[in-house]
Amino acid sequence: SDYFSDGQGNVRLLAVDETTNEGLLTGRVKYDYRTQGSSEWRELTAYAKQEDFIPLAIDADANALYVLKPLDGRRALYRIRLTETPSPELVASNPRVDVDDVVRLGRSKRVIGYTFAEDKRETVYFDPQIKALAAGLGRALPQLPIIRFDAISDDGNKFLIFAGSDSDPGRYYLFDKATKHLN
Predict the structure, then answer these.
(1) pLDDT tens-digit profile of 129-162?
(2) How far, CA to CA in Å, does 88 sit from each of 53, 78, 117?
């Protein structure tokens, strides 16, 4: 019923909806995956409720699938390496609210962090360089503390950045990492 690619032209995840004998959907889905470079489908999950396993992204560089799964009554973020023996590892959870998405960057769409919303939307970055850059830009633009990375050049030196706040609709900037110039 659905396919997920790794962003590099390789279909890596297959979703199969369960149906009754009459052809009606049950609301349960199973997922099969492919290891890197393989065309053979392997079972990743048995049929389960859709809300119990929500695929978000496949990071080709990390050879991993990021999914939301329940943990202590909230949705938590897990990473599953798409290897011969995949096993989920907890990446992030929040005891008060659901983790709700991942943050991706670049042509390869590598996963660099995750988001959740309490009083305001929060982004937590895994990538230490992006985390430091976000903190520095937040200090440089104190009136626009919501920083979002929308694109990066292939050489990793130029970023298209959105900066805004709860009272300012925001604007886009081009940041040159080499010259530390923000336009």
Answers:
(1) 999 999 999 899 999 988 999 999 999 899 999 9
(2) 11, 6, 24
What residues have CB less than 8 Å from 64, skipping those under 6 apart?
58, 79, 80, 81, 82, 111
Cα angle, residue 110 at apex, residues 50 and 114 outer, rounded to 5°: 55
Task: Give per-residue pLDDT as tens, 8-64.
Answer: 889 999 999 999 999 999 999 999 999 999 999 999 999 999 999 999 999 999 999
From the CB of residue 70, how many other CB atoms can be counted at a distance below 10 Å? Answer: 14
> Taking the model in full, what pTM does it have?
0.90
Region label for 130, one of left (φ > 0), alpha (ψ between -120 and 50) or beta (otherwise): alpha
> Dihedral sign, CA of 121, 126, 130, 136?
positive
DSSP state of 51: G
Tell me the two tokens of residue 153: 């050049």
